[in-house]
């Protein structure tokens, strides 16, 4: 088992562990270079109003154009980046890049497209995360309302005492706060009602099981109702077919995101997607 130091030192070996550790070290070294070589890119996935179909936002999703392995999704490298604190630099790059794109879209006359950015727990636990956000907004010359921050339930439940104050500080900058992958974590509902939040994003595992699965039906509908009761917005991720869209819209789910609407796309392709839709 790895020691708490976070270094690649092991108390004992299990089959495959040495290979895994070695692969992680290679990946770590490549990740450091990737930042300086500008190999990261943000893709944007559209989010639309469930009733009107109008664009309401875009989620920024990180991609790595690896020199040999091609385009990599976050699942292939985020865990390693987190273990080696690289995620702080990478996360900061994501924020600045999203801010840059947001300003650009605004200047090019695209309808206001708030960009949702995923945060890692490492970033959120920074002492000065609200200070970092303030700098990113000031440097990018954009109001907080143009960005949305996506946090997971775990991030809200860790270090409970500090979270409400931080969320208030972020919202005071105009930023809005979404809970990502909602329903898969362990949020205390009592705690949830006390937090200054804006939106719940229903995890795609529930949406994927609609409309056939009774359990998914019950949970998804309950999340929509709970959000409404708490005065929060609610959106669904991973919407893949018309039956899912209809069901979610009929319950009053506010936003939809998923393959049925559009895949994650590079910025230029996102613009053509939007133009074709209009
Ligand atoms: P997420 O924030 O829950 O993002 C949604 C994921 O679902 C994305 O995967 C998206 O491509 C995928 N998706 C969207 N619609 C559909 C659909 O209809 N069907 C299916 N099968 N999948 C769909 P992606 O881009 O691979 O990202 C995976 C996760 O990596 C994200 O989950 C997020 O937790 C994390 N991530 C992505 N970008 C960043 C980032 O910049 N920073 C941090 N810290 N995490 C990120
Ligand atoms: Mg997300
Ligand atoms: Mg999600
Ligand atoms: Mg996720």
Automatic annotation (TrEMBL):
It comes from the Bacteria. Residues 24-278 form the EAL domain. This is EAL domain-containing protein. It comes from Roseateles aquae. The chain holds residues 414 to 691 of 691 of the full protein.
